[in-house]
Amino acid sequence: MSIKVAIRHFTSYKYDKHITLSPQVIRLRPAAHSRTMIKGYSLKILPEKHFINWQQDPFGNYLARIVFPEKVNEFVIDVEVIADMVVINPFDFFVEEYAVHYPFEYDEALQKNLVPYLEVTEKGPLLMELTEKASDLLRKDSITQDFLVKLNQMLYREISYNIRMEPGIQSCEETLTLKSGSCRDTAWLFVQLLRHFGLAARFASGYLVQLRPDIKSLDGPSGPEQDFTDLHAWTEVYLPGAGWVGLDPTSGLFAGEGHIPLACTPDAQSAAPISGMAEPAETEFHFENTITRIEEKPRVTKPFSDEQWDDIMALGDRVDEEFAANGVRLTMGGEPTFVSVDNNEAPEWNSAADGEHKRRLSNILFHKLKDEYGSGALMQYGQGKWYPGEPLPRWKLACYWRKDGIALWNNDALMADLSKDYGLTAKNAKKFMRTLATELHVDSKNINPTHEDPFYFLWEETKTPVNVDPLKVDLKSSLERQKLAELLNTGLNEPVGFVVPIRWDWDKNNWQSCKWSFRREHLFLVPGNSPVGLRLPLDSVQHTDPNELEELPERDLFADVDALPEGEELIPKTGARFNNSKVIFKTALVVEVRQGKLFVFFPPTSYFEHYLFLVNAVERTAEKLKMPVLIEGYDPPSDKRVTKMMITPDPGVIEVNIHPAASWRELAHNYDILYKKAAESKLATEKFNIDGRHTGTGGGNHVTLGGQVPADSPLLRRPDILRSFITFWQHHPCLSYLFSTQFIGPTSQAPRVDEGRVETLYELEIAFQQIPEYNENEMPFWLVDRIFRHFLTDITGNTHRSEFCIDKLYSPDSSSGRLGILEFRGFDMPPHYRMSMVQFLLIRTLLAWFWKTPYNHKLVRWGTELHDRFLLPHYCYKDMVEVVDSLRNAGYGFDISWFEPFFSFRFPFLGELQVDDINIEIKMAIEPWHVLGEEMSSTGTARFVDSSLERIQVKITGLTDSRYTFLCNGLKIPLKSTGVQGEYIAGVRYRAWQPPSALHPTIGIDTPLVFDLFDTWTQKSVAACQYHVSHPGGRSYDTFPVNSYEAEARIISRFFDFGHSVNLVEPAVAQQTAGGRFVTKMNILPQYVITNEVVSPDYPYTMDLRRYKNAKNL
To answer: Organism's domain of life (predicted)?
Structure first.
């Protein structure tokens, strides 16, 4: 997003007497070739009595020649430049094929034009030595750009920068002798060095603008602490095809938008900002350079001003006060997602759920959050979800804290780090298991060593190709092949781990064990790569009548419970004899060593107290043996006395299930820490498409509402709250689309209730009638789930994929689904944590309002308007204004400006065109993606998503509708008035690319889009702009942008505010006469007839270019 700045350059000379000044030449006007957009320029000279003539020198630089007819006692130059600091990618250029590699020679005609820029004027020994050193940077077929980067960096390292107030420029020998110089000295040295290599170079003088970054860099210089500007000098080299390319040896960087050229000449003396003579006199000299930001649009790196943020926090506090006064008892959490900063091309950060890099960064973040969110946390490495097509279950990192503040794990040094190798072996595992058995008072005779099945792996080895060495691990081979290679290196006869069957004895209140035996005598594991605890051959254990086995009871999360045990209470009382069971059960504790780390696999337990007993025993054992451990296996049972935070992998992202907060300030604190620690872990909250479009992570930022305990949940105690949320969201589609991911619609991850089945709203209104008003008798908790379960689903019936997910509200399936939690799934990950907080504040404020005044109204039948009008930024914004007005009328001081960063993020600005009083603005709009029918792919049957359509919004202000027509590719756009005089809106849907599998695979692409403002009075296109989907110069990007600057530059490079269509004419009108009819026709130049609009009754706000193609073919 651009920032408009005012550069003020003030220079004054005060003399002790009146003197005569010769004509003064001032070179302080931005050059015509400046890539930074100059919006305004002012030059004021004192004394006022002077003559000024503007001219251009032989090199195209602007000169102001000032003549003073009388003697003066002062000379003041006051310059102000208004510049639009839009990001420029300095590497966005082509070079001719013959100049791609250095060395090359300019062609004869070009060589003649560049003669002044090839002149070598210095050949001192130090310069020649530097040239020799620079020659070492050359390699065979060196790419020209790479060579220039190396030269630029070499000078940056060799010559230190100092501020030199003396006039003139040092010679190259002086600069190399001192190994220091001002910017102009280093720039001139670089000019001469480039010319020695046969490259045309010129000296550039101009303004340098550096703006303070919103976010500091983690692994490089962050830039200035304050906005800065000054006169500066750099070098420009001429590359065939690219033209003049700026290089700044003072910083070692290429010139970007912050380099505003004033004068570029072959010789440094000709680029002096001011030149002329003066009569000798005592002179008082003063100069000042300042920069002021005069226009800043909301941007995701700084979404709110300090004043706005104070207002946001104050409103959050006020809502909290209402919650306390009204007994709402709300807790709020979420599921933010993150992607890698550095490795964004890898499958694990785009489509795959797992990957080595993802595991490493997740572990780093896991440890950082554990230390920040509390002390005495228990870290557990558990099993996550297992989806079809994935070879293994996903992993899960979980962190647990006791709400009473007592430590679950006391000594952090005994909790191993997943990224370290402690050099432990199976012998250490055996010793640990025997000691742990003693701590648990379990018979050590029941311990079984576990082995890999040799017969299976011998058979597996026979399948290995003759020319493949099974001892060499191939990371691309199957998991079985990798496991085989690992075992052949370590030996099949070595025990893998140790297992002891245990379960809680409810009668004796201690641990009970039993003796497992096997037909093959030893315990051979099920083949695989998972932990030993997941590969136990339970079917081979002695058979037990199911009627003799005790079922594991589930704790009722709504029941009252005592405080968790602590201290000595964590050691169950035992008798003198071991508690061995005659009944064979199949829950077991496992100890194994993997990659030098000791893992303890916990069995399933019924109550959290039992899990806590095991944890305490493991820590005591680790303390005795001085062995750090990692705890894995089954999760501890859900318990309202414990807080949990998790990190899990999802396709393309990692997801953090952040623990719920009971207050607004706690929630803000938690998210502030999360965003900061994620950034420190090299994890980002944003992604960039190939075309530069800025998006969220794509994994969502789901919001959860609940209570400290399930029975406190506002959604269970007041079911009308859920009805209010559903109704309000249905009334205001902007809430579904402004915060969503790119993928919206009935087949998305969070479809609206009115997307998909036509009859849903009718049936939902009947369901709403079953909900009593808030002042009536309370309804049973289970009824909430029964009423809404079959409405809050996607079109396949999946209850999890819904805008309002009630999977964990009061599920009939298990107690783990009866948590009183409502999940808002229609939120994508915002780039800044303060934007997340505004989303949360919106939901909290609506809840406070609905708690006092339920929102109970008829549902709206939007029909096709839903995917027509509300997908355009103008109407989405108007809808959000209505939302804000509703909250303000209810007494909550929301401000529509708080949502401007979201609109800038969701509907990126593409470009604008100003023609007299008419302004034309182009913004990206939203386009739903269709899920196609089943097709065969390399992995089996698949359903592809058609993302080949895009939509933009055209907004025109100051238009006289009776005179002007607005065209897209020669087609008349049906404009809709916004109700404001002269303001019109239209959406344009177009085919951006043509994949082999699409909804309409035979329709070609529509780009570039050429927009013409056609004057019907003069029959001419008076102005135009163009929007390209891909780089107009043919640079087909095959990598993602490295950061937001490159992404912004990619978008800007695809918009031009020129390029009108030539010789457009309106359709000829037939003239009827008595003898027949005739049409006036002139065949002078080819004419392009404007096609009248094809207005769709279903989508009147959007012009679909595909329909025009059909109309032409009729």
So the answer is: Bacteria
